[in-house]
């Protein structure tokens, strides 16, 4: 049914464009925007940080120049002020997303500062999540602390699933202290607790038996009718040995 509807809409739009072309001169041709329901990229309520981020030619050129200048702080700052700050929102967002994907922490932090100064900027959970996930992957504790404090000042509210993903990301990167800081924030959150984020965290805590017991107790207190699977004790030993080997 949806396929038939989209096909019908496509034919209708094509007919309207043809009629407009035949009845109006070039100077009189109006601007017409066609909106197809169900298109995520067209939804005005969808966060800009969740929309598909395609890099334009201008964004590609700007990104290449930023990478070229990152070893020269003076020229980099001048380029940011003279060019990056003038980019369209979509270009700026797409460049930051690409730098995050490439784990370019220094440049991502630069654009993070630029974005937060833009007139269109609004605190957004998905913007926060993407920055923190990238910093977790790269084991950047100081930058994580800075970004986290910024978001607390802006009063960004995380949902339980995002908390769970962030805690797991820091655990997987071997940063249990930072992970538990976020876990404590999760426990203080006004958002009602959910079982799935706890399960995600408990799995990530396998290399850290003591911390896992703490989270397990919290989980069973909140969800007394649920069961937590405890792997054999020798698995904890294997995980601990592996973690020690990676730290060396």
Query: What class, by secondary structure content?
Result: mainly alpha
Q: What is the share of helical residues?
A: 55-70%
> What are the low-pLDDT stretches, counting only 5+ consecutive residues below 50?
1-9, 11-44
Strand content: under 5%
Pattern of helices and strands: HHHHHHHHHHHH
- Main beta sheet strand tally, sense and closure: none
Model description:
It contains twelve helices and no strands. By secondary structure, the protein is mainly alpha-helical. The longest helix has 22 residues, at 2-23. The protein is elongated, with a radius of gyration of 24 Å. It starts with a helix and ends with a helix. The relative contact order is 0.06.
Question: Which short descriptors sum up this protein?
Answer:
disordered N terminus, single chain, 248 residues, elongated, mainly alpha
List the topology elements.
Blueprint: H1 2-23, H2 57-69, H3 73-82, H4 89-101, H5 105-117, H6 125-137, H7 141-153, H8 160-172, H9 176-188, H10 195-204, H11 209-222, H12 233-247
Helix pairs in contact: 2-4, 4-5, 6-7, 6-8, 8-9, 8-10, 10-11
